[in-house]
Fold these 2 entries.
Entry 1:
Amino acid sequence: VILVLFGPPGCGKGTQSSRLASEINGQVLSTGDLFRQRIAQSDPLAQKLRAILSAGELVSDELVIQMLLPEIHRVQAAEQHVILDGFPRTLVQAQSLDQAGNVSPNHVIVFDVPDDEIVDRITGRLVHPQSGRVYHQRFNPPKKPQIDDVTGQKLVQREDDQPQTVKRRIATYHQNTQPIINYYQEQNTIISQIDGTGPVNQVTDRLMQVIHSSR
Ligand code: ADP
Ligand code: ADP
């Protein structure tokens, strides 16, 4: 099964996808994480990606697909469910996925969170780059300030989590969302909309509910 977690930046896709993966024998594929891992190698492609991400712009559809498809195939070969986090972000990406064959999403779950809350969430986000664990200064603080609970290593703010860049990313999301939703409606893909506000556990409950009811 291929699940898509869809929603604006900061709506909780990363937080919820890791919980979901452990509930359903799934693996999360986050295109944002794929790019950040790639940026750690310091070659020309890494530099190009870094410039795109820090400006809050989208990576080209072609490159996204080229990097993601082998990962989907790897998870399928391991007979695990695929949980897509942050993909597709454009209509072309959604179409390309279908054209690749045997990798069409079975269920698209859209998280609703109002823009002003998104800004609060992203500007307070702290991450542990080595593991991808996500915290929030106020909403989900680590046990010790600025320190990862598991490894004791330092947490950082993402370079693209600055107020100006966040506004840009939210605008891009709104621009691309409706065409993608319309496309999945035309394909008769199951689409569920859930409320992404409130405590993390409550959002997880809503997510599990729509997943179980679609089976
Ligand atoms: P967030 O979790 O805040 O939404 P992500 O980690 O998903 O952020 O993405 C970070 C950045 O990586 C995006 O702002 C964009 O530059 C790039 N990116 C991630 N996924 C895609 C995608 N599917 N298409 C194009 N660019 C992407
Ligand atoms: P995304 O992957 O969609 O960009 P994240 O899972 O990284 O979103 O969450 C963005 C920020 O919001 C993080 O700092 C996270 O700790 C926080 N967060 C996630 N879910 C909630 C929630 N239900 N209420 C408050 N803050 C949340």
Entry 2:
Amino acid sequence: MKIAPSILSADFGRLLEDVKRVEEAGADLLHVDVMDGQFVPNITIGPLVVEALKGRTSLPLDVHLMICDPDRFVHEFIRAGAQHLSFHVEACVHLHRTVHAIKEEGVRAGVGINPGTSLSSVECILPDLDFVVLMSVNPGFGGQTFIPAVLPKIRALRQMIDEQGLSTVISVDGGINADTACLVRDAGADQIVAGSAIYGRKDIRQAILDLRG
Ligand code: DX5
Ligand code: ZN
């Protein structure tokens, strides 16, 4: 499984240093949580911060938009350096248009699904997606508890992808620690996002090893 540390749990006062720490510890991607205070009850970072990281890390920037009406900002985040860009099905009316707007710019497109949203919301568009972000917490904050109801969703999505012979990546985001990483891997996830389970540990290299199981 690929590991995407979320900088939401990093020390923003020394962000680049914390990015280098996960890079050196063997992370695969850098997960950047963008929140607008409307779609989720928290405000985090905008394109300026993504731009500040661009070219300063070898990790691909995996930008997770938790914002209303994501079309307004897709191009700006791509200009800022997003190489993987996801937005939420609950926040977007014309899913197909937004996915293709991202892909036309040569960026990998993903759709996020909240714990209370059915997989059927992305079924029709699955072949167009590079990845699906299955949320295992209600988005908004780091350090929340994993919601086990995501496990049957991972299994069902794995089956859909395999049956159709697709290469869509299943990413699972929220409440991931060594125990839950094991559960989501067994259910068929390809990638996990983890914030507190990585940045909350002194030994980040060991934290990433523990998540790999
Ligand atoms: C939640 C974010 C997550 C968050 C995960 O809204 O999308 O990426 O940073 O944090 P942990 O791993 O602490 O649950
Ligand atoms: Zn996220």
